Amino acid sequence: MITTDINIAKKALNKDEIIAIPTETVYGLGGNAFSEEAVKKIFALKNRPFYNPLIVHIKGPEFLPLVARDIPEIAMQMAKEFWPGPLTMVLKKQPIIPDLVTAGKETVAIRVPNHPVTLRLLEQLDFPLAAPSANPFGSISPTSAAHVANYFKDDLEIILDGGPCEKGLESTIIGFENNQPILYRLGSISVEDIERVTGKLPTKTKSDHEPMAPGMLSRHYAPSTATYLTNDVKSLIQRYQDKKVGLLLFKDPVMDTGVQHQEILSRSGNINEAAKNLYAAMHRLDQLGLDVIIAEQFPEEGLGKTINDRLQRAIKK
Ligand code: TXA
Ligand code: MG
User: Fold this and answer.
1) What domain range includes position 70?
2) pLDDT band at residue 209, thresholds of 50, 70 and 90?
3) Do 232 and 164 belong to one domain?
């Protein structure tokens, strides 16, 4: 059921059930973060490996000490600056967080989502919500209630509808090593904006062996259609002229081509708008029965970096 009724959502969560929740980034599959039973259901539904820990969503920065300990001063500053919002911080965990949530790690990922519906819901709960993105493991994240419904059909009873996601890309994840912030996952706050608070941010986002954050796996966020990323869209169109081709472009359509479908992410060249539209466009393209999706490389600055990162992981390897 797709609903906007917070009471229905609250009742289900109080019974350790799992529901889809809207956030400003992408939809999540939420359950009581203090309940092993609820958390187990999240992993099962998502078909997510147990080594991949979840983000805990709290209702405000003042609840941070309930779930995390030994919080560095800089993390407090970042919380003040960016919460509620798409910043996830990985901090030492409090014992109240089940090991299942953190995949046995001593650290827990935490954020305060900036969505009025989910904030109102959290306000009415006695526990935070563990929530991964509401997609099967490895596939494109959902940015609307319809995307979630399409993925989980009858396996998910309640989808709390908060409209299309405002940001459209997952949160930026920051860890701390020796109290120094480190970028674990590019996200919907640009590196430049975070560096205004932290100074130069070291990065640890690419590791296929022991992923710190499996959002870092080299293939993730992937459509089922073979996807290519290029600086030279026209040449690739040439190469695939006998195939059914779809294009994923920043601002300008490609004229005089025989391609089946073009998705333009922002006609005015606005990177925030492009970010917001990215996953919905990928979902649409993936449903057209194409042979090939050709995506255009974005300018490597601001959110362009995050978009390129996601496209990079979506491509055929
Ligand atoms: O925007 C978002 O972050 C969305 C919404 C629903 O909040 N959530 C989301 O969750 O993207 P998920 O599970 O798809 O991605 C969370 C990432 C995973 O790559 C996971 O490995 C990483 O966070 N993570 C969680 N706990 C961690 C920890 N203790 N240390 C390192 N990485 C962690
Ligand atoms: Mg995810």
Assistant:
1) 2-170
2) very low
3) no
- Does 140 sit in the ligand 1 pocket, CB within 6 Å? no
For ligand 1, what atom is nearest to the CA of residue 188?
1
Q: What is the pLDDT of residues 288-301, one digit of tens each?
A: 999 999 999 999 99
Q: Whose CA is closest to 87, among 100, 99, 76?
A: 76
- Name the residue at shortest CA distance from atom 23 of ligand 1: 213
| CA of 168 relative to ligand 2 center, distance in Å | 12
Question: What's the chain's average pLDDT?
Answer: 94
Question: Does residue 156 form part of some domain?
Answer: yes
For residue 273, CA distances in Å to 21, 172, 259, 308 come to 22, 17, 24, 15
Residue of 170, 207, 313 to mutate, ligand 1, most atoms within 8 A of C-beta: 170
For residue 48, being part of any structural domain is answered with yes
Q: Count of CB atoms within 10 A of residue 73's CB?
A: 8
**Atom 20 (ligand 1): residue with closest C-alpha?**
213
Residues 82 and 146 in one domain: yes
